[in-house]
Write a structure and sequence with these properties.
A seven-stranded mixed β-sheet has the order 1-3-2-4-5-6-7, sandwiched between helices. Helix 2 crosses helix 3. It is 43% helix and 13% strand. The radius of gyration is 17 Å and the shape is globular. Helix 3 links the parallel strand 4 (82-86) and strand 5 (105-108). The protein has helices spanning 28-35, 62-75, 88-99, 116-135, 138-145, 148-155, 167-179, 183-189, 218-226, 245-255; strands at residues 5-8, 12-17, 38-43, 82-86, 105-108, 203-208, 231-233. The chain contains ten helices and seven strands. With 258 residues, the chain is an alpha/beta fold.
Length: 258
């Protein structure tokens, strides 16, 4: 598949993976910081952002999305890149690590370490967010994106500091959430998902201190799975890249040092 992507910098390759309903532009706050040391490729999963849907008959799940991304970077001529992902992308990054398909993996608030009740809560909140975006007329969406209170209402579930998101970025994120054909099936595929197999390469897991979608108590389970401490991101929410770009870049660059 031809996937939409943005590429910057030079050095060892680093592939960035977004969360469900999001798009590669979510990484823009940290892209230049990471590009100082890496050949950074931020990519849209199939059926999300500007990438085309999966071919008919292929199910949307972590495995098929991961295979599509791996085939994508192989066509770019990359071998064993570093990878970093957020939420859904974090789970896929850890799955790559469990297969030894990457050099290192960084997972920011990865999916898959929830209880059944926590998964039901997250799934419900994501559906509510998408339904709200779909029901909001363009004029009202612009008004929300132009006010501090509107940003807090629209983005408070996902970020700790919604006022730091530009109106343009908020409207683009809303469009990505509203228009992604892979959303429903991907969300359903995680109903019974288990954490990946133990990693075969170095990994780092970091969690937003104020994550409201996947609360940070899930980091305790992730730490048991990884048999290592999970890094807490102070002042950050579920999508931490806009909350504290310098901190997120620092965590990724430390983890991907050669």
């Amino acid at each position: 598949m031809e996937l939409a992507y943005e590429r910057r910098g030079s050095g060892s390759p680093l592939v960035l993976l977004h969360g469900i309903g999001h798009h590669r532009q979510g990484w823009l706050p940290v892209l230049d910081l990471l590009a100082e040391r890496h050949d950074v490729i931020a990519v849209d999963f199939p059926g999300f952002g500007e990438s085309p849907p999966l071919p008919s008959g292929l199910p949307y799940n972590a495995e098929t999305l991961g295979v599509a991304v791996e085939e994508f970077w192989t066509r770019l001529g990359l071998k064993d890149p570093h990878v970093a992902g957020n939420s859904l992308g974090g789970y896929v990054a850890l799955d790559f690590a469990s297969r030894g398909a990457v050099r290192t993996a960084v997972a920011l608030s990865p999916a898959g370490f929830w209880s059944r009740a926590e998964h039901l809560y997250a799934r419900t909140m994501l559906r509510v967010l998408r339904a709200s975006v779909s029901a909001t007329p363009p004029g009202a969406a612009t008004a929300l994106a132009s006010s501090k209170a509107g940003k807090a209402v629209a983005m408070g579930m996902l970020v700790a500091k919604p006022s730091q998101i530009s109106a343009q970025a908020m409207l683009a994120a809303a469009e990505a959430l509203r228009e992604c054909p892979g959303f429903d099936e991907t969300l359903e595929s995680f109903a019974w998902v288990a954490p990946p197999a133990p990693p075969k390469v170095p990994i780092t897991i970091a969690w937003g201190e104020h994550d409201r979608l996947l609360p940070r108590r899930q980091a305790v389970r992730a730490a048991r799975w990884a048999q290592q401490r999970v890094t807490l991101l102070p002042g950050c929410g579920h999508v931490p890249m806009s909350d504290d770009p310098a901190l997120v870049a620092k965590v990724i660059l430390y983890s991907t040092r050669d």
